[in-house]
Amino acid sequence: MAAGAGRYNEILDTFTRHIAEIGYDGVNFGLVANELGVSKGTIVHHFGTKDRILAALHESYMTRRLAEIDYMLAHLEDPAEQLAAALHAFMLYHVEDRAATVAFQREVVRLADQESMAKGADLRQQYFTRVRDVIQAGIDSGVFREVDPTVDALLMFGSAQWAWTWFHPDGDRPIGAIGSSLVDLVLGSLLTDRDRVAELSDPTGRSASVVRDAIEAVAENEDTAAI
């Protein structure tokens, strides 16, 4: 990895962790520079402005999520399994990519109307469209009841968006059980055959396993690209 790329990633990772812990307003160049032992000028060289670092956080986060959902969709053909995988993923990210997930979710609307955030917004829309289209495919095939796929997708994202405020990795409820509950809640209301709920909500089942495979595959591709 080139030295410049290493600094870029270290700065982004450190900003991400601090945003997750104290929020965007509490983070500044001096805090990150002191921790990493670099000058503020080094941060400016790589990012320019603080809002550009937030934009980079959003873009890198959603790029990973898009690659993972594309992996899931490619490895699962049934809309019910695909949607179950997306729902398991919503929760699993709170353990597998926690700092970035918390930082993203707590600041997702920050500077939303700024030009610097346009790419991140487009990536989020692409992700949303994929999930909405899975719901529509389930309706078209008779797997799901007739619903408004846009509204249902918005409700799913809205539910997952606030998990950072109440889920703690060291809490009493393991993330697999929480993901299972979310799948049970959503697919229990959507499926025309409710007998499938237990299978799809199983945190060790096929849908959840494909999520873990997707996270691993995308991480390996990132590591390879960085070499």
Provide structural commentary.
Helices cover 74% and strands 0% of the residues. The radius of gyration is 19 Å and the shape is elongated. By secondary structure, the chain is an all-alpha fold. The protein starts with a helix and ends with a helix. The protein folds into 2 domains: 1-48, Homeodomain-like (Arc Repressor Mutant, subunit A, Orthogonal Bundle), CATH 1.10.10.60; 59-226, Orthogonal Bundle (Tetracycline Repressor, domain 2).
Short overview:
The chain has helices at residues 3-22, 29-36, 40-47, 50-75, 79-96, 98-106, 118-141, 149-161, 175-190, 197-201, 206-226. It has 227 residues and is mainly α.
* CATH C-level of the largest domain: Mainly Alpha
Number of strands: 0
Total discrete domains:
2
As residue ranges, the low-confidence spans are none
Tally of DSSP helical segments: 11
**Silhouette:** elongated
Q: Percent of residues in helical segments?
A: over 70%
Largest sheet: none
Q: CATH superfamily membership of the largest domain, which one?
A: Tetracycline Repressor, domain 2
- The whole-number mean of residue pLDDT values reads 93
Radius of gyration: 19 Å
Q: What is the terminal separation in angstroms?
A: 5 Å
- Approximately how much beta-strand content do the residues carry? under 5%
Please identify the structural class as seen in this structure: mainly alpha
Q: What is the CATH architecture descriptor of the largest domain?
A: Orthogonal Bundle
Q: Would you list the SSEs in sequence order as H and E?
A: HHHHHHHHHHH
CATH fold name of the largest domain, please? Tetracycline Repressor, domain 2
Q: What is the chains' assembly state? A: single chain
